[in-house]
Amino acid sequence: MTCALDCGAGIGRITKRLLLPLFRTVDLVDVTQEFLDKAKNYLGEESKRVGHYFCSGLQDFVPESGRYDVIWIQWVIGHLTDDHLVDFLQRCQKALRPNGLVIIKDNVSYEGVVPDEVDSSVCRDLEIVRSLVRRAGLSIVHEEQQMDFPKEIYQVHTLALR
């Protein structure tokens, strides 16, 4: 595989442990420049395979058309409004190479939309996430729930979209 995009990359944990072992090049996008600066150090020698460090919120970020085999979006969709998420997913679809995938891995509430005042985000239930994916014109090609979590915390679901 050629190129992946890590959305909401932070210091690059997903890039280091998942994406760089699978892809020749990985681009990182995060709203916090300080995290991207730390990522260069955290990734160490492997940082030379990072194509771009983009400092941007996903609501404003426009990924390059036709560049990515995988766009990985983990624990960040709750920071986007419904409309911003739909618009971003539409831009992601244009950024995929043939047979590319958008992967969303995130917390999912048991029912409705649950606000988190601490980090100004929301947690949506699975049906709401699915409806936003459909609204963006994408389809879910695979979906799974991470198991063995205590009932008191949110479920974690991964959706592969095309």
Structure in a nutshell:
It is an enzyme of class 2 (transferase). With 162 residues, the protein is of the alpha/beta class.
Which tags fit this structure?
9 strands; alpha/beta; 162 residues; methyltransferase; Rossmann fold; 7-stranded mixed β-sheet; 4 helices
Protein model, in words:
This protein is an alpha/beta fold and 162 residues long. The chain has one domain: 3-Layer(aba) Sandwich (Rossmann fold). Helices cover 26% and strands 36% of the residues. The strands form 2 sheets. A 7-stranded mixed beta sheet has the order 3-2-1-4-5-9-8, sandwiched between helices. The longest helix is centred in the middle third of the chain and has 14 residues. It is globular. The model has no long low-confidence stretch (mean pLDDT 97).
Q: Average pLDDT, to the nearest integer?
A: 97
Query: How much of the polypeptide forms β-strand, as a percent range?
Result: 35-45%
End-to-end separation in angstroms reads 16 Å
CATH homologous group name: Vaccinia Virus protein VP39
Strand order of the largest sheet: 3-2-1-4-5-9-8
The largest sheet, given as strand count, sense and whether it forms a barrel, is: 7 strands, mixed
Number of helices: 4
User: What is the top-level CATH class?
Assistant: Alpha Beta
CATH topology: Rossmann fold
Instruction: Using the alpha-carbon principal axes, give the shape.
Output: globular
Radius of gyration: 15 Å
Spans of 5+ residues with little confidence (pLDDT < 50)? none
Let me know the number of strands. 9
SSE string, helices as H and strands as E:
EHEHEEHEEEHEE
Under the CATH scheme, which architecture would be assigned? 3-Layer(aba) Sandwich
The class by helix and strand makeup works out as: alpha/beta
Helix content: 25-40%
Number of discrete domains: 1
Assembly classification:
single chain
Family: Belongs to the methyltransferase superfamily. NTM1 family.
EC number: 2.1.1.244
GO biological process, one term: methylation
GO molecular function: N-terminal protein N-methyltransferase activity
